[in-house]
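Slide 14.
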Amino acid sequence: MSTGQRNKTTAAARENPHPDGPRLLADIGGTNARFALEFGPDQIEQIRVYPCVDYPGVADAVKKYLKDTKIGHVNHAAVAIANPVDGDEVKMTNHHWSFSIEATRRALGFDTLLVVNDFTALAMSLPRLSDEQRIQVGGGKAKQNSVIGLLGAGTGLGVSGLIPADDRWIALGSEGGHATFAPVDEREIYLLEYAQKKWPHVSYERMCAGPGVELIYRGLAARAKKRVGANVDPAEVTRRALEEDDPLALEALDCFCGILGTFAGSLAVTLGALGGIYIGGGVVPRLGDFFANSSFRTRFESKGRFEQYLSNIPIYVITAEYPAFLGVSAILHEQLSDRGSGGSAVFERIRQMRDALTPAERRVADLALNHPRSVINDPIVDIARKAAVSQPTVIRFCRTLGCQGLSDFKLKLATGLTGTIPMSHSQVHLGDTATDFGTKVLDNTVSSILQLREHLNFENVEKAIDFLNSARRVEFYGLGNSNIVAQDAHYKFFRFGIPTIAYGDVYMQAASAALLGEGDVIVAISKSGKAPELLRVLEVAMQAGAKVIAITSSNTPLAKKATVALETDHIEIRESQLSMISRILHLVMIDVLAVGVAIRRAAPQAEVQKAVKRARDDGNEEALAVLDWLSHGVAPSKRPRE
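Slide 15: predicted structure.
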């Protein structure tokens, strides 16, 4: 994007801004993280580049960018990343960053955080490229509403495609660059054999990604029995070819282009890409006229009986400076638009009714549309303040939409959010059939668990696990229904070898708590968190030095008294179901803690097993006996010293 374009963009952004504020766009590779702000449709500015190595994680880089641009807060963000994206956990292949998408969204305070593969984003940018942002290399005219192919040579070889579907495009996720390399002549057979000395499987990525330029150069040098210095890299080979007309470098670069042409031709016939093949990445656009005059186009069309078929397909080299921003912008726009086009009944209803609302109610509607998570999470006093209305107006707005109140509206609003797992909740009514109330009970339970995931303080979870893992003794206290959870916790934790017991009687709790002290831990489980007899028992234990982990609702006396509080709130429903859902959430929290302790104990145990193997290999019987005791709890026998 040129300076002139950016200036025009900045001016346009002020005329037609996004109603929900600027959106964050990111393109993250193994070396650099690129960020931009989109203030309106195709109005992208504030582009900045940060070295990934300078930041511990992706959230740190985002925070630095937001601080540098002084933008304050962003509600919606989309990230293109040079990595497969399959689920919530992302672990980069070419960099050490790994992160949870959902945890990162919460940490940054975004309403929406979409993370997609960088080539999926690049593919989605293709329909939005202008003629000035691409250069055609041979072929005829692209056929309208046809499949488009995409490849890009950079650190790796990315592959994707676009399939037309009515008035939209579907991007293909692909790892096609790892297809097995197929040589077409004696020279390439030699290069294959040369590469097989390093890798058992030689893919096209090995040959026609950026590092392939150096591989081909060194392979051709070995074939010609020429010596090559250790400091030759892909950039140096390219420089020697383009600036010095070095014969070996020129041959290597043309061979690279030829292999890429064969791969691109295979991609075109595989996809039926009559809409054209686009080439991005960091290598080809830098080759300029050399690429256009290379063997690429000839090799692209060299498919025997399909030569005529391929000769009509145009090749486009992408010259746009930051095309991935266009792609993630399109993906984010589509996701956010789904809120008003069937993605959620409540969002659609708000949009339909907005013009018929009073001016005050309309402000509440706008807040719900533009900042839905804020409405879901905030108490009514904060919602009213942010919308600049009274609290009764908020309630009146909810009832106008057909909701029973604010809680019911929050639950329906949660079902339409993008960028996270949808949540739903329903009221159980007298007269419901088994199908109706059975479905509602299950939906309500799932919804509550997802709400717990959304709001749980995981730093406190870490602290609780640390206390439990190092505890001398653990006691679980629960009264009434909570005693069931305490007994379940006792069953899970005694298997770790920690002295543990569960008490559901307040007198037994008092008697046992009086004997606790430093190194002991009480896990107190209570829905209300208000039982005065339980609070008195815990006070005695804490004064003696014991730690208390509370599994309870937020802002209760128990939560405030405990050393660590794990708050299991859920949106209120019918009173008859409160204890049931609370019990489920408490059982889930016990499972989280048990898994955490198991993981903590598995790591040192694995080290013991490694030490056992070393002692056995060394024949060190005394060390082996001690390690066997550590591993299995069998005391080493005493042997006389020789």
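Speaker note: The domain at 3-117 is CATH 3.30.420.40 (Nucleotidyltransferase; domain 5).
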